[in-house]
Structure formats: C-alpha cells, structure tokens
Specification:
12-stranded antiparallel sheet, 7-stranded antiparallel sheet, 2 domains, alpha+beta, 8 helices, Transcription Regulator spoIIAA, about 40% strand
C-alpha cells in the first residue's frame, strides 16, 4: 500500500494505492489517527487505485468513520475502484461513505476568529449575565514558611457550579487526610486528587445522582457560578504548541477581565510541572517548602516536558500583573516576561481528539472520565533555571471556559 496526502480547503485528502488488507490496515489506521491528532477532522479517501480490500480493510474504515463522527468530523470516499465499490455495495456500506457526512455542529453567526501571535482563537458569544465569585480556603502563606502552625482543613463540596484548585485530599476529616494532602483540581462536579505517596496514583470522585464529591482542602481557591465565555484555540506552529503564558495573556486581552476563573480541555504538546512528595502538614516549624534546599525533599519537578500527546484537563485562576495581583499569595508569574499571573493545576488523560464546536464542560468531562485513562496530576509552572530560555507547558488546540471573578 502507498499513501499520500494533500490539503483541500479544510479537507484532508488521502490517496491510497495497492491492497487494503490485514497487512496494511494498521498502517492506514495510524495515518488516520495522526491526521486527527494534527487537527484534520474532515477526511476524504481517493481509492481509485485500490486493487483489493479485505474485511480487515472494511473494519478499519468503519472504525475511522466512527472515530471522526464522534468529534463531529467526517470520512468519505471519492473515486472508489471497482473492487472497493463492489465489496462496499455488497456489505451495504457504500451509502455511508458515498457523500460527505454532515457535521452535527451548527455554524454560529456569533463567533469571531482572531490571531494572537501564532495562535488562532475562535471566540463564541459571551454571556455577561453569568457571574462567578471566588473565595480563599485556608492560607497559602503557611506553605511559604511565613507563618508556622497548621491551620486545619475545610470541607468543600464540588457542586456542578463549583471550580476549585489547591492542596487537599479525599477523606472524612482533617486527621484522616493528614498524610494525604496533595494537588487537587475540580470543576463541574468532578474532583481529582494526587496523594503525595511513592506510587503517586491519582484518584477522582464524580457527581452521580444525589451524590456530590467533597474534598478536605488545606488551602484552595474555590469559585462558584456560571462561566460567561467559551473559546477555542489552535496553534499554527508545526509540531509545537502555544505556551501557557501566551494563552493566559491572550485570554486577558480578548476578555478584558482583570481576574478570571479558567477551565481548559486541551491537547498537550508537553507539560512542565511539579507535585508534592510529602503532605505539607509534615513540615517542621520554620521549614519552607519552596525555598532551597528544603524544596528538594518536598517537591518533584519535571526536568523536561511530560505527557506529550495527552488530553489535559486544566483548572486555574488568572490575573493581570498589576499591584493587586502581585499582592495575592496564591498567584505567581505564569512565564518569563508574562503579562499574566496565575495558578494552574492539570490532569493528564490518555489522548483523545476534542469534539468541534461549542461544548458542555460537564458532558465533556463525563465523556473523558468514561473513555480515557487518568495518567497524572500536577501543578503547572515555568522552569526558569536556564538563563537563556524558559521551559513552559504547551498546548496544540483546545476548548476554554472562562468567567470574570467578582
């Protein structure tokens, strides 16, 4: 089999030559998966020069069709050879591939597209009537070694209208969670926690029926309300993503917000992160978690980007780099020379393409937990140890929910 491709006005055309049988079906499937990962959701197959197609070939066609349909994409065949047409007609599948599948996405007249550097943003209609509030639980300054003592933890219910991130644990009370406080992120009735254990296995709780997840929070930002803005973005850089700091600055520019709550589902191009090695409740008096040399036994760092080609669920607080933002101990510089301050936690799942159009956060998260594997949880940061360059988390494309914080 020989495969070649070309771009045609938003549609990727794959030309197939030779036999499409069991020996080559995996090669074809990999080509489709790579195309989807590179952002191609509408694919047409020129099968004029396919001399034979077995049931293995039909199976990979069906699987690719279903994969694209699930993300509002399409797969169709042009110029089928006589062997292809015959077997598809006899199996009753020709009609499925004969014409371009209609996308379930309804075009919106209320979207605008704009470029920020090398990233294209699609901005959907805003709903300024939706409001969000933010409250702080606990005191993040305790972790800086500024104050001594344990302030205890607070039970936080993760409602469908709740977004939260910080340090916490799943458990009945502070005492039962004492050794388990680690990174937490939560939104739309879903909560994820990484215990600071040697195994480092992330855990999660999802709302179901009358059940609402609850987290013992040592310190956290807890936001309540409805998001007012929905955006999509995609980088124009080949094989690279757009940095978290660029995304953060662009979101502030596009929205005009001084401070915002942000949730993102995005395809990762690699994450730079840290996570706790031990629960901060074990800190001795005067010991600082984030100061050298103590930091080496308290935090694990990723020396290079991890979870490349993963589906990332990111929760964060974003603020302009003004006097008010600089006073907030919860916020830090997102990147070198960044126009934004922020605090972001992320969960990495096995890769899956993101459905096109406007999405429901609750439904998107439910599908992600159902179909994908949770691989890791982390605090996102910029590695500025190199004087010449700063390593940052990067994302290729994704969907963003955002709300101005009162």
């Amino acid at each position: 089999m020989k495969l070649s491709q070309k771009q045609l006005d938003g549609t990727l055309e794959l030309t197939i030559e030779g036999r499409m049988d069991a020996q080559w079906s995996y090669h074809f499937s990999s080509e489709i998966e790579n195309a989807i990962h590179n952002g191609h959701h509408d694919i047409q197959l020129d099968m004029h020069d396919v001399s034979f197609m077995s049931s293995a070939g039909i199976r990979v066609l069906l699987n690719s069709y279903k994969q694209l349909k699930a993300i509002n994409g399409s797969l169709f065949i042009i110029h089928p050879s006589d062997p292809v047409k015959t077997i598809l007609d006899m199996s009753g599948l020709m009609a499925m591939f004969k014409a371009k599948s209609s996308s379930s996405q309804t075009p919106s007249d209320n979207t605008t597209k704009t470029m920020k550097g090398d990233t294209e943003f699609e901005v959907f209609a805003s709903h300024p009537e939706n409001k969000m509030t933010c409250r702080m639980v606990g005191n993040p300054e305790l972790l800086q070694g500024i104050h001594d003592g344990d302030g205890g933890s607070t039970r936080v219910a993760i409602q469908k209208s709740t977004m939260a991130l910080g340090l916490g644990a799943f458990g009945e009370d502070h005492e039962s969670c004492n050794d388990l406080f680690g990174e937490v992120l939560a939104a739309a009735g879903s909560a994820i926690h990484l215990p600071p254990t040697a195994a480092g296995t992330p855990d999660y709780m999802l709302s179901a029926g009358a059940f609402t997840p609850e987290v013992q929070m040592l310190y956290a930002a807890v936001c309540e309300g409805s998001f007012s803005d929905f955006l999509r973005f995609e980088t124009c850089r080949d094989n690279k993503g757009t940095t978290l700091s660029h995304l953060a600055g662009s979101l502030l520019d596009l929205s005009g917000y001084k401070k915002a709550a942000v949730v993102m589902i995005a395809e990762s191009a690699g994450l730079i992160s840290a996570s706790l090695r031990q629960s901060p409740t074990k800190r001795s008096s005067g010991e600082a978690l984030f100061r050298y040399p103590d930091v080496r036994k308290w935090l694990s760092f990723s020396p290079e980007r991890v979870f490349d080609r993963s589906l990332s669920f990111v929760v964060g607080i974003l603020s302009g780099n003004d006097a008010e933002g600089q006073k907030d101990p919860f916020l830090r510089t997102v990147g070198r020379d960044s126009s934004a301050l922020g605090h972001f936690h992320a969960a990495a799942f096995s890769y899956s393409p993101i459905t096109r159009g406007k999405l429901s956060l609750e439904e998107t998260l439910a599908t992600t937990f159902e179909r994908q594997t949770l691989q890791g949880v982390m605090h996102l940061l910029a590695d500025r140890r190199d004087d010449n360059a700063a390593m940052e988390s990067e994302f290729k494309r994704g969907a963003i929910w955002m709300g101005a914080l009162q």
